[in-house]
């Protein structure tokens, strides 16, 4: 069994192949058969990696098809992406987009929820639907031999969901129970409180994309149908297909199933950053959430981050890899590998079309909560106050740039990469410039973005732990006022 | 249960579960695609090398299995195999700490390790040009690590592992169930009776001398298998492996502690109170080890119970009666023994006996009526297709080759694996359900604090 938290997942990489001019090169043969074990092998320039072509077609109703041929195995991945159908469009009903996505396969066409699940599995297919902040996505993976039947099911789910009142109620009750259970997870509570504090009421990120108990209680068949009707239209839909198929086949199969889907028009776009209330830029404040008897404290330090289209994107990626985005990063080296206070410490920027949060965090032993907090602060100050070493810069750049091909290996990964470009409006030539853009970042750039985005005098800090045991130590750090809050970020006492 | 050195990137658990796979399409055409071509080779020092070529992307995966896990530990030193795994990243003679992680990151490669009851694995994956570096680093810690070990390294990783235990068990909702389940399931003299992560007291007791002795006993080339998969030339791989690993001396034949056979004579009931709001019940039955004759039928049974929304347990619990938020069944066949589990989480305030009686009733109905032909086909097709998807990923294939080789002696066991699962009949499913799931079991409840009345009881017992 595996129940692994994801502490060190790679940053999202979208890049093209290039031989790195700065990379040490040398033929393997030069090392001979008798060799000096004390000298590490020289790593040759990585082989050129050519991104496959992304083919494009458009149906009469505005639906777009993007396709990448991959004929290694008889598998096809079909991802339906509906733009502006994500949680940013929830309005005053947090969780509506993700709930609607989850309802799609709970009855559609001629089948009920169990009938769909049974048929999908019988076809050897896997089907999932969800929504992020921007889009709804329905993902299908099917063996080539059952693709036609699997696409029939997919079309039912996208075009003919039932949203019956009884199924909506069933899933609403289930979501309510899962929300209750998630409040037992110290990491989840930390994230909820942090988002509620960094983003003000009225900003979509203030509330969870998965909804809260009060918004969930208001979900019903009519609200779900309303959201579906407003957002699910072919002219805002792209179907990304990767795998053992050609554009000719795909166009014919999709035209037959999605060609008569009636156009819906541009609809209402999500608010731009300028139209949203600004994230809260407060003087450093520490918020404590009591978790009686907790064996560890979950510490997070946060600031408003950057949007994906920011000109600082590459410098921020390199800076964060050095600070907390890799195993050898400064935060992990300090808090785990030097002091043994945690199983892992890290940091990351959430990239969205409008700025998401920056978050640095770790689960630490209760009796070193205050000391750990000071080390987080010290590492952020250090990367602001002095240049990173040339070795750190080179390592972070190589880690980001050379890992590229592995992110295009499976049909699902390939579809995800195409989807990322679509989500952020980036061109398909984007990958070709990625490596160069990473390699252009200088030590000065790293320091500049650290200074710009890691202001330690203006951090929102959330700690979920055993309050009576950690309170005095946190007060004594004197790095900011201390406020006790409940699990929704509301002040207590 | 599998533990990794770092939290991310581990997909071994998924592979363990995905072992059960079969084909039941009208023809065997899809099964014909399920192949893992390889070459196998043994060095004079006993190191086994398996190479699989896949040129779809210019990457390589190096995957080393040492045939030692928590099942080789002694009472009083539980958690040691996993602590040792952490120490393997603390430097070796030619690559002193922290060279291992830094050099791999500088080559664009990832790495990690993980420990189960039966084995410890280490892997690197990245650009194919990083292969010599990966092999040099793995060879150095296989041959030149023990003399660099000292108490400072042991103390540091001991603290890290204790934090890992806190993060996964003490500070995670329901986490302590995994501390209690092994001991409730296996007799105290059986090495599966303690969790892979071990106890805090035993972690405290581990010494530098223990580390050195463990290394000499288990970390020798003759107790390891090295898989290299990806965009490589097999002849070049063989020559690199001989260069880097060839001079590492063979070690002793590892000493495997004995373990008892056993049988549960009555249900054992365990109740834990935890800081949770939903009650959860764990059932565990004694079954068979991996690849024993009934292992395949038990895998199919687990799919029929909870593999999809229309599963025999999922449908009544989550859809029809709506008394549970989820339910999951698994056959966990290991090297020395095996167990079958069902885990179900109740809606707030639901007595776990309500879940138990539905589960018992549905299992009895399955035994009486057997699965339908359609249910069997659905299970076979779903499991077969998941195996096909596993072949998309080089890292997964490298681990699968090691997995098959260790448990069956054949790296390319895929075809037989499919055949044994395809051979499972409705009568087999009925028989293994009757034989194993109607025998005495462990019933472990995790209930909200102060809510012991929600705990599941023995059938027929008066609460």
Quick description:
Chain A is α+β, with helices and mostly antiparallel strands. Chain A contains 16 helices and twelve strands.
Question: How would you sum up this structure, described in words?
Answer:
The complex is a heterodimer of chains A (493) and B (463). Chain A folds into two domains: 55-270, 2-Layer Sandwich (Cytochrome Bc1 Complex, Chain A, domain 1); 281-408 and 424-485, Metalloenzyme, LuxS/M16 peptidase-like (Cytochrome Bc1 Complex, Chain A, domain 1, 2-Layer Sandwich), CATH 3.30.830.10. Chain A has 16 helices and twelve strands. The model of chain A is unreliable at 1-32 (pLDDT under 50). In chain A, a hairpin with a 4-residue loop joins strand 4 and strand 5 (136-143). In chain A, 38% of the residues lie in helices and 16% in strands. Chain A has a six-stranded mixed sheet, with helices on both faces. A six-stranded mixed sheet of chain A has the order 9-10-8-11-7-12, sandwiched between helices. Chain A is globular, with a radius of gyration of 24 Å. Chain A starts with 54 loop residues before the first strand and ends in an 8-residue tail after the last strand. By secondary structure, chain A is of the alpha+beta class. Chain B is α+β, with helices and mostly antiparallel strands and 463 residues long. Chain B folds into two domains: 36-245, Metalloenzyme, LuxS/M16 peptidase-like (Cytochrome Bc1 Complex, Chain A, domain 1, 2-Layer Sandwich), CATH 3.30.830.10; 268-397 and 406-454, Metalloenzyme, LuxS/M16 peptidase-like (Cytochrome Bc1 Complex, Chain A, domain 1). Chain B contains 17 helices and twelve strands. In chain B, the strands form two sheets. Chain B has a seven-stranded mixed sheet, with helices on both faces. At the A-B interface, helix 2, helix 4, helix 10, strand 9 and strand 10 of A face helix 1, helix 2, helix 4, strand 6 and helix 5 of B.
């Amino acid at each position: 069994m595996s129940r692994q938290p994801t502490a060190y997942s790679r940053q999202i990489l979208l890049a093209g192949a290039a031989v790195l001019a700065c990379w040490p090169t040398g033929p393997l043969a030069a090392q001979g058969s008798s060799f000096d074990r004390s000298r590490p092998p020289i790593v040759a320039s990585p082989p050129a990696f050519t991104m496959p072509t992304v083919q494009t077609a458009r149906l009469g109703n505005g639906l777009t098809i993007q396709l990448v041929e991959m004929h290694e195995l008889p598998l096809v991945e079909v991802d339906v992406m509906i733009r502006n159908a994500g949680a940013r469009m929830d309005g005053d009903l947090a969780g509506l987009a993700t709930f609607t996505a989850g309802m799609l396969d709970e009855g559609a066409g001629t089948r009920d929820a169990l009938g769909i699940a049974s048929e999908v599995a019988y076809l050897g297919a896997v089907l999932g639907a969800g929504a992020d902040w921007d889009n709804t996505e329905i993902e299908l993976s099917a063996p080539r031999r059952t693709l036609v039947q699997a696409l029939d099911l997919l079309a039912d789910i996208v075009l003919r969901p039932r949203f019956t009142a009884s199924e909506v109620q069933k899933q609403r009750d289930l979501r309510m129970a899962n929300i209750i259970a998630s409040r037992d997870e110290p990491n989840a509570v930390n994230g909820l409180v942090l988002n509620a504090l960094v983003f003000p009421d009225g900003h979509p990120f203030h509330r969870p994309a998965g909804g809260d108990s009060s918004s969930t209680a208001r979900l019903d068949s009519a609200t779900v149908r309303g959201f579906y009707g407003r957002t699910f239209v072919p002219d805002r839909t792209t179907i990304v297909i990767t795998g053992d198929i050609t554009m000719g086949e795909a166009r014919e199969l999709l035209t037959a199933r999605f060609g008569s889907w009636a156009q819906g028009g541009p609809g209402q776009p999500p608010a731009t950053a300028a139209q949203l209330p600004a994230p809260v830029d407060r003087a450093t404040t520490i918020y404590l959430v009591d978790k009686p008897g907790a064996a560890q404290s979950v510490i997070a330090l946060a600031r408003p981050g950057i949007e994906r289209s920011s000109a600082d994107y590459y410098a921020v990626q390199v800076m964060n890899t050095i600070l907390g985005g890799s195993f050898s990063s400064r935060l992990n080296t300090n808090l785990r590998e030097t002091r043994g206070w945690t199983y892992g410490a890290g940091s990351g920027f959430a990239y969205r079309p409008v700025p998401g949060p920056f978050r640095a965090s770790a689960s630490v032993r209760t009796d070193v909560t205050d000391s750990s907090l000071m080390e987080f602060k010290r590492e952020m100050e250090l990367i602001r106050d002095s240049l990173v070493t040339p070795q750190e810069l080179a390592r972070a750049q190589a880690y980001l740039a050379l890992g590229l091909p592995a992110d295009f290996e499976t049909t699902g990964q390939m579809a995800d990469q195409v989807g990322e470009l679509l989500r952020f409006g980036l061109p398909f030539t984007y990958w070709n410039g990625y490596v160069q853009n990473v390699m252009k970042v200088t030590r000065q750039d790293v320091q500049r973005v650290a200074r710009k985005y890691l202001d330690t005098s203006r951090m929102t800090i959330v700690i979920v732990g055993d309050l009576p045991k950690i309170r005095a130590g946190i007060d004594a750090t004197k790095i900011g006022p201390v406020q006790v809050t409940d699990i929704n970020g509301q002040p207590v006492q | 249960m599998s533990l990794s050195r770092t939290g991310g990137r581990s997909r071994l658990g998924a592979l363990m579960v995905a072992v059960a796979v079969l084909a039941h399409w009208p023809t065997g055409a899809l099964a014909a695609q399920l192949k893992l071509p390889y070459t196998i080779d043994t060095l004079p020092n006993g190191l086994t090398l398996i190479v699989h070529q896949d040129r779809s992307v210019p990457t390589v995966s190096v995957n080393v299995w040492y045939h030692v896990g928590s099942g080789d530990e002694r009472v009083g030193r539980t958690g040691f195999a996993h602590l040792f795994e952490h120490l393997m990243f603390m430097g070796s003679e030619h690559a002193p700490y922290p060279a291992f992680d830094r050099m791999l990151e500088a080559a664009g490669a990832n790495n990690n390790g993980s420990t189960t009851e039966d084995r410890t694995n280490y892997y690197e994956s990245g650009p194919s040009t990083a292969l010599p570096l990966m092999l040099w680093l793995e060879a150095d810690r296989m041959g030149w690590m023990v003399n660099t070990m000292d108490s400072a390294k042991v103390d540091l990783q001991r603290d890290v592992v204790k934090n890992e235990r806190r993060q996964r068990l003490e500070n995670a909702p329901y986490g302590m169930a995994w501390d209690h389940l092994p001991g409730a399931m296996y007799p105290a003299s059986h090495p599966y009776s303690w969790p892979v992560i071990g106890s805090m007291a035993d972690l405290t007791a581990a010494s530098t001398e223990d580390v050195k002795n463990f290394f000499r006993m288990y970390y020798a080339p003759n107790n390891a298998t090295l898989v290299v998969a990806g965009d490589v030339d097999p002849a070049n791989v063989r020559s690199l492996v001989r260069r880097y690993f060839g001079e590492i001396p063979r070690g002793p034949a590892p000493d495997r502690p004995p373990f008892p056979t056993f049988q549960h004579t009555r249900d054992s009931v365990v109740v834990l109170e935890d800081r949770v709001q939903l009650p959860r019940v764990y059932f565990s039955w004694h079954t068979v080890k991996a690849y024993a004759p009934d292992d395949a039928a038990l895998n199919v049974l687990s799919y029929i119970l909870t593999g999809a929304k229309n599963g025999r347990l999922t449908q009544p619990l989550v859809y029809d009666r709506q008394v549970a938020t989820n339910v999951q069944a698994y056959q966990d066949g290991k090297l020395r023994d095996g167990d079958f589990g069902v885990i179900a989480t109740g809606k707030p305030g639901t007595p776990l006996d309500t879940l138990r009686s539905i589960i018992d009733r549905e299992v009895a109905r399955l035994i009486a009526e057997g699965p339908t032909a359609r249910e069997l086909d659905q299970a076979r097709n779903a499991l077969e297709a998941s195996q096909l998807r596993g072949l998309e990923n080089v890292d997964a294939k490298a681990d699968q080759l090691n997995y098959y080789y260790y448990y069956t002696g054949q790296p390319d066991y895929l075809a037989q694996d499919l055949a044994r699962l395809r051979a499972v009949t409705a009568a087999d499913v009925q028989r293994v359900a009757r034989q194993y799931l109607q025998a005495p079991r462990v019933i472990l409840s995790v209930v909200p604090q102060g809510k012991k009345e929600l705990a599941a009881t023995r059938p027929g017992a008066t609460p």
